[in-house]
């Protein structure tokens, strides 16, 4: 569903996912090249109408939260990134990501090793 959203709605949804929750003003502040306040509120209302965003009132302000699982959204976004910039190669994407990080925590190294071991077993 996320891939089918118009560009601005997808941007607003992704920003809200990264924030976890936020007001229209917080979402607007986090957007690159943000539209007007009313445009952000309209985009959030559209996302709510599509069932992707919920809101509650806190101190007379709407606080929005993504309804869909953040992990599913992250996976979809990552698949799009890998397809677009790494010719569909998860290994190339992982190598690029590891090159961005000057130092990994031992727990992260262990997690990566388990993923590599699992992938190796699945190809045998």
The residue ranges in which pLDDT falls below 50 over 5 or more consecutive positions are: none
Strand order of the largest sheet: 1-2
CATH second-level architecture of the largest domain: Orthogonal Bundle
By CATH, the superfamily of the largest domain comes out as Winged helix-like DNA-binding domain superfamily/Winged helix DNA-binding domain
Largest sheet: 2 strands, antiparallel
What is the mean predicted local confidence, pLDDT? Answer: 88
Helical stretch tally: 6
- Structurally, how many domains make up the residues? 2
Using only CA atoms, what is the Rg? 18 Å
Described by the principal axes of the CA atoms, the overall outline is elongated
Structural class: mainly alpha
CATH topology assignment of the largest domain = Arc Repressor Mutant, subunit A
* First-to-last CA distance: 34 Å
Order of helices and strands: HHHEEHHH
Description:
This protein is mainly alpha-helical and 124 residues long. It has two domains: 65 residues, Winged helix-like DNA-binding domain superfamily/Winged helix DNA-binding domain (Arc Repressor Mutant, subunit A, Orthogonal Bundle); 37 residues, no CATH class. It contains six helices and two strands, in the order αααββααα. The chain has a two-stranded antiparallel sheet with strand order 1-2. Helix 1 packs across helix 3 and helix 2 packs across helix 3. The longest helix has 18 residues. The mean pLDDT is 88.
